[in-house]
Amino acid sequence: MMYPEPTNIWESIEYSSLGIGIAESLWAFPMIESLHVMALVTVFGTVLIMDLRLIGLASTNVPVSTMSSDTLKWTWIGFVIAAITGTLLFISKASTYMVNPYFLTKMGLMAAAGLNMLIFHFLTYKSVADWDSSAALPKGAKMAGILSIVFWLIIVFCGRAIGFTLGIYY
Amino acid sequence: MLDLLFNITDWLRTTFLLDFAFWITETPLSLFMVENFWNVPLAQVVHIVSIAAAFASLLMLTLRVHGKAGMSLPVSDVASRYMPWIWWGLLGIVISGLLMITAEPIRNMVNSVFWIKMGILVVTVLITLGFQRSVRGKALAGGAAYVPSGSTKATGLLLVVLWLLIMLAGRWIAYVPV
């Protein structure tokens, strides 16, 4: 099959041998996407458990630091797999994704979720010794939990919306 | 494998499911689901979020059974925290799943992978009931001295694998030709 000459970096990525290989394969895209789903539910599910603790809605009998070390490892494992599989999916349709507003919103919200996590970890969490075992946490911790749930919910929505709007945007 | 899936789908096409699926497409709920562009994606979001809640709960409970997380609480307490989330998650999965089937009954019901998924789901629910008896009932009766048996540990791992298979089948429903 012949592909047109790339006119920008995204088309160059899409028409790379890896991109074409994934796009032309009958099983590669669905299989990578399946792994992406398994990874992202692990991310969202473990993040949700931690967030509900921060908000004070569940596991209030578990110290925040314990909850964090129990869940964070799995959040990261899931995130790394989701990022690798997501990149592979992106490569196979790079130029289509780069004009899709839901994809761009999703990337922006992932950055926001990351920033929210960094602020919590490096600022709010500094005083964790004072509230580790409390049921009700400081406003900053609660806020981090609420923002995280909201961000990740919209990220999941955007992810699904991408699949329904491919080819609509040019 | 592919031939087998095709043959099963071919056979499904000869059963009452085909007429039933066509009948569903005429129902008001099915029409409602397809007439707004966002209804199906939103049902899928609820589906994914419910899976996340149930799967991560199962994961944390299984890790506790294996002594790898949540060690500050006894198994029965951890089970009380996470088992309800598995069942409520399943309810969200079933409701959103029924809406998705209603929206696209032919693609789902005349589809070998869909029925394989339903089979694994039923088995998973039955095994979860047994798992719950161990981590709740037996753990509570055993008190602080309770140590999960090898079979309870294995059952937890098996459930995690079954959920992953359900997700795999779920995604492939959309890709096997019907």
From TrEMBL, chain A:
Keywords: Membrane, Transmembrane, Transmembrane helix. It comes from the Bacteria. It holds the Pfam family DUF6644. Residues 32-164 form the DUF6644 domain. The chain crosses the membrane at residues 35-54, 74-91, 103-123, 143-169. This is DUF6644 domain-containing protein. It comes from Alteraurantiacibacter aquimixticola.
TrEMBL record, chain B:
Residues 42-175 form the DUF6644 domain. This is DUF6644 domain-containing protein. The keyword Transmembrane applies. Pfam families: DUF6644. It comes from the Bacteria. It comes from Alteraurantiacibacter aquimixticola. Keywords: Membrane, Transmembrane, Transmembrane helix. The chain crosses the membrane at residues 45-65, 85-102, 114-134, 154-174.
